[in-house]
Amino acid sequence: MRFFVPLAALILQLPPTTNTQAPASIEGMVVDNQMRPVAGAEVSSYWELPPLAYRANQVPRTNTDSAGKFVIPNLAPGGYRIGVNAPGYVFQTYGAKTVGVGSSARGMVISLAPGQSVREITVRLTAASTISGRVTASNGIPLSGMDVHALRVAYDSSGSKTLVSDSGSQTDDRGEYRLTGMGPGRYYVRAETPYFSTNQNEVLQRMGRPPVSSGFYATTYYPGSGDFSAATPVEVRESEKVQDINFVLPRLQTFRIRGHLLDVNGAPPARPASDAKDKPPIRPMLGLLPIQPDYVGSTSMSVVPYCGTSRTCENPGGAFELTDVAPGFYWLTGQISEPLTEAQRQIMQTPGADPSSFPQPQRAVAAVRVTNSDIDGVELRFYPKLSISGRALIDDSSLSTLSGVDSIRIEFRQSYAGSLGPIQNAALDPQGRFSTGNLLPGEYRVDVRGLPQQAFLVEARLGDRDVSNDLIRILAPQSDELSIRLSAKSGRVGGVVVDSSSKPAANATVVLVPVQDSKRPDRYKTTTALSDGRFEIEGLAPGDYTAFSWQAIEDYSWFDPNILRQYESKGKLVHVVASSNEELQLTQIPTSAN
User: Which helix (H) or strand (E) holds 342?
Assistant: First the structure.
């Protein structure tokens, strides 16, 4: 797809902010698995709530000395996570139960007050492994600039199966690649043409990337399948060098997508004459992403925007044409963003800034399937406002019977290109009615947040369709109402977690897995045991659950039936009815058993 450049190239270049409070600091030491100091490691302090836009060199960081010690001074008060990179080791976050960059590897938050110094933290590193090989075309010619990723299976908070990249690289002029910094595990290695074209090779060289071979080549999983389900995982042990993971990529025929950008009235989008003074012309950016992909390496946008009705615009009719598109099923998007003011630019670089304070872009979306020919006549239509309205009831009665109604929010979370995206929350009025703000077109998952402890979601229906565990597709104005049914007739499960010596297991992960409603992610309930091993989970829908407790486990991997099958004998079945109060003793599954 030769019209693409990486979205990272479009990120705002913002000046650093200044801190007027007394600076704080974090001190500690980096060691290996034998507790030997690691010199020269890069130690970074990442904001718990990062700015919406920042440069990499704005992240406070330092390097360990010859004794493995570090000090990060002049930190603004707030929460930080400490991450460590070192050659030959896996990236590690302080306090994480697992290595790498997954959700379970996010580690502990260090909270700093003005002038506070946190000392004597220790980060322990695991020796890294590598995977290397070669990528060629069907005729044996080496392919340069191909993207290669080592992917592992993970699950997100909605229970959806995803692929996460633990390491990525590009092939050199000999078609060779080397993936580094990986921990032990099973990886699916994938090679593909990047979102670049040969006429952007000068840009790539400035970015330090190798030039891309001409042509478009099929995405391929090792040992040679375009389908993830037929891929063979590569087993990697600690500090292992896995070689000769080679690929032969078939060249694909590519096609064009042609169409028009339109507003709600069927005309090319343009500024009203009253709003056009001293403002640049509207410049929608075009993007193309696969629908329900196995993995998306980067989000990309079009190089040449359509520029509205400006007098200097070469295309006032709104026509567009995308070239070099490989066969597939895609979301074709157009986006119109207003330029930020200087004040908004300053807010964007402030940790924890509220994204709702910025003007929301307009977006148009169309689903396009490319098979064996060009696609013509696609309409990307911008609607001024898309929203969903509805009502929530509890046990078929008004919410006025429930305490804590003010905290309830109906959450709409966009699912974009196989991953979870922006969230919009809708508050309830006293009668339980709600309406969203301006939703971007796309697909959404619906959930209910802030429920009182005794309440749970029975079902969500859009019109006559149950969407409790289904995506809502909103591409045009929506007439159906969303009906939310809640209930306070829930149960409770509490108890204690012990280790193999029958001693209380502090900080153990406790998960209740539904037996009947395994397709409903909101039915899975988790908590962390206290220092005395005690735990409590309320708001359980009546039904059967299997209770597990792990010393450490990858977040959301309990959605994977294959993972649960491994621990089937270690779970404990519990039956929950309305108003029940069950007590359990769980034996913690040690990390060594994972």
Answer: helix 342-348
